[in-house]
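Researcher: First entry.
Model:
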Amino acid sequence: MTYFRHFGLDREPFGTTPDPEMFYKTLGHEDCYERLKLAIQLQRGLSVIIGDVGYGKTTIKVALLQELQAATRPEDGFEIGIVNNPRDCRTDGQFLRAILGQFGLLGTGRTALDLTTEFLRYLEAQHLARRRLLLVIDEGQNLAGSQLEILRTFLSFETPTQKLINIVIFAQPELEEKIVRKRNLAQRVAMDHKLNPLNRRDTAGLIAHRLAVAGRPPGAPPIFADDAVDVIYERAGGIPRAITTFCADCLVEAVFLGRDRVDGALAAEVIGRRVFTGTPGTDRVDRTDRMPEPGGDGGRREDAVQTRIPIGATGSNGIVPGAGADAGMEFGAGAGGLR
């Protein structure tokens, strides 16, 4: 059903997929996006993007990857590997092989040390060939402690002037405490950003932007009345995904009723009928239990840590892991028993 034609639109304005064209850059999202790109271009190592469910992490990720993959000059390009959910890897060996496989490596080593050495040799070869690497970890809140240690080891592979690999982690707030507990890793975070809910102005801007991209002519009467925007903002709590979901529901209902405009009463009625809103404390069934991470302590947290992750300096010489105790690999027994 092309319901959007009823409003003179060319495409669906409030789809459920992370379409980069629909990416509305608030000041916070713009700051995150531009600083993330800069950190990657400068080969600074680890970047961490924190945001609760529906805050726009996936949209930022997709927009970033699309821009990087569209680079026309070889020096601007990246070899990109993506691990969509670390929870799918039950052992450290599986995690390492998943990473190596993303870069076309077979991962023939028997232990975590063998696999890490294989990856280091690959990084060295790519560096000599002047090719840059980017590893993207999604659902980073599911990273186990030993998996974070593996990433820390990767970050110690460097020349005197740059890291041999960029790592970007997109995660829900549960990751914050895990990183804060690992000072050696926290000090390697070169860029971090915590996404926040939208305010009322940005909620209106997001709605207008999506309608414009979908073909709403400039100067056309607004489809959503101001009081409808107020209701959507309040009920969504500023969460972008909830805002788009509520807007889509309102447009479909308006079509059924033969209306060309959504007012506050209609928005309130439509949202009020939803069983699942996706906003904290408003769903009729609001479960906060979280599945435990592999080998973890249950993974449930009552209070999100709001501390900004500290940024620290690194500095080893040559393309080798950092010297001293910091260079030690401390992987779990699942991938070869290194300790």
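Researcher: Second entry.
Model:
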Amino acid sequence: MTVVLGIDTSNYTSSLSVVEGNTILSDRRRLLTVKSGMRGLKQSEAVFQHMKNLPILIKMIKEDIKNLQIDAIGVSIKPRPYTYSYMPVFKAGESFADFLSSVIEKPVVKLSHQEGHIEAGLYSANISPNGTFIALHLSGGTSEILKAKFKNPGFDLEILGKTTDLSAGQFIDRIGVIMGFQFPCGNKLDKLAVAGNYRNCIIPSSSKEGFMSFSGPETAAERLVEKNVRHEDIAAAVFENISRSIIKSLKFLLERKDIFSDDERQYVDVLFVGGVSSSDYIRERITEEFKHSKIRVHFCASRYSTDNSVGTALLCSRYIENRALELIKCEQDVDAQNQHLC
């Protein structure tokens, strides 16, 4: 089996992992440090922290896999699988991958952070959709509804809906920081939300034809904090607002006949990935909403919802093994042709 090193350097996590085929041998991560009261990091600060973290993580990986040899390296080099997609933090991982490749003389497969999230989600949810499926990528930097198809390597992705301003993660973190929590605030607010009642301070959702807006809801939530409304209820209202926006968008998009044929709409797999997808409130709310529908909802396991390099490593492994199968088939076709000529 192919042994692959995965590398991902996102906005807030340095990640290295090793997989052998579909088995995870090592998964090491270090969160980037954000100063108290701040709502994030500058790209230059994040790159600097990645450069310090990667040598530490590679030592841990080496201890985990002992003398096992790496056959290939998979690395996330940009946020999304589009030509225009770029973010400086991913250059730290790409440079590290290129350096390691030159030292161990093994190939590098360059992928996107978003594709890694989707692959990690499929792996942890233990599903393998036939043909097209929907992926909802909900995180601190991205909130997109995607039509997804397998390709080698990665996925063909088409944006069906998204936020027009703040991501869901930014909405959550900004309200959490105002409440006095340390960034990132997702887990803390989620726990408050589960104990709260959104009906005590409803925040209207804003969603039209698959496109969601959270800037207005953010302002409404800030006013609730200023009025000293119970934090548990505000948190519940924030997560309810996000959940409703997703539900409205999904229902609209799945009725569009130009996206899915009648046969495809019979049963649609919807996979939730990204850090916000680990929310207990959102998981329960979405699952309950669609439990009697034709939508089959799948949530990535919490450990693989947050930023990681496991999905990148698995994608690289799939690519290498598929290429090997293609080569074997090509050789068989040549042999068959030669026998025919003889």
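Model: Note on the second entry: The longest helix spans residues 310-341.
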